[in-house]
Amino acid sequence: MTLSGSATAPVQAYPLSTRIAIEGLGSFFIVFAGLGTALFSPAGSGATIGFAYGLAMVAAIISFGHVSNGYFNPAFSFGMAVAGRLKFSTAVFYMVAQTVSAVVASVVWLAMMKVMPAGATPETPQLFGALANGFDAHSPSQVPMIGVLIVELIAVGVLTAMLLGATSARNKTTMGPIAIGLAFAVAVAITMPLSNGSLNPARATSVIFLAESWAAGQLWLFWLAPLFGATLAAVIYRAFAPSQSLTVSETEPDSEPETVAETVSATVPATVPGTNGNVAPAATDAPVAAATDAPVNPAATTLAKDKGIDDAQAFFDAPKK
């Protein structure tokens, strides 16, 4: 942050319709890549399928993250809303778009199966039933319901916490998308032998319409556990968040303003118009002190959170080291 010159105009947010469409596109690509790898690599390990999901997520976040922040997962979107990073109304639209696009991805693979030679693939219900997430008798390792629930809850909770940390305005690294994708790949690889590796309610929903009837009956767990895990992580994250706004002295010289006070101080010009049209040096100490020492209006802070994090794309638009 500098105190000379005027501040740069904030980056305008993309329209909500554009962000919803991008969330759908990213979800489609991730689920399409993961299901395709599982379909055509039946002997492949969980690590192979997990790598496909993680690499697709990295590509989607890098490509589309500047538009919608790159959640591409209903659990992540809900967790961001609970953490105050996203409006709940926007999160609901994201979740619907992500789920519908995931179903479309499975339909595309169904169309692919239909044009393959007869006998080359199993019957559709058995084929997609093998991709569906399940517990008890439908778990690859016969894991009971409580075991799958605990694993899904903890895994999604940890992933949500990592997503919150990687996309924090205080995090100046450019490796956030890679960290998120690698973490997701590892988590999917771990859960593949247990529940066929969901960690994504949209992906869990994508195949139930094409699988056997048991898949729809067990879908509730693969929505409940991820959403609860994401909520728990977001609540804990907010509990450990700084209780006071940052001041100029607490931030690095080249960091972006994160609070209302910093935004005010960042926009104070180093020079002020003098008499006869001349420019005279400004007393920078007084304006900065006034901006940083004055109490922050709670309403303005709330507005800054809504606009600065959701709309201004703080993580993707802020300069990185």
- Tell me about the largest β-sheet: 2 strands, antiparallel
Shape assignment = globular
Derived structural class: mainly alpha
Q: In which order are the strands of the major sheet placed? A: 1-2
Overall helicity: 55-70%
The strand count comes to 2
Head-to-tail CA distance between termini: 13 Å
SS element count, helices: 14
Uncertain spans, ≥5 residues at pLDDT below 50?
1-9, 244-294, 299-312
Mean pLDDT: 76
Order of helices and strands: HHHHHHHHHHHEEHHH
> What is the radius of gyration?
23 Å
Descriptive account of the structure:
The chain is mainly alpha-helical. The chain has helices at about 15-40, 45-70, 75-80, 90-115, 125-130, 145-165, 175-195, 200-205, 215, 220-240, 260-265, 285-295, 300-310, 315; strands spanning about 270-275, 280. Helix 11 runs antiparallel to helix 12 (about 285-295). The longest helix has 27 residues, at about 90-115.
Summarize the topology.
Elements: H1 16-40, H2 46-68, H3 74-82, H4 88-114, H5 124-129, H6 145-166, H7 176-195, H8 201-206, H9 213-217, H10 221-239, H11 260-266, E1 271-273, E2 279-281, H12 285-293, H13 298-311, H14 314-317
Antiparallel strand pairs: 1-2
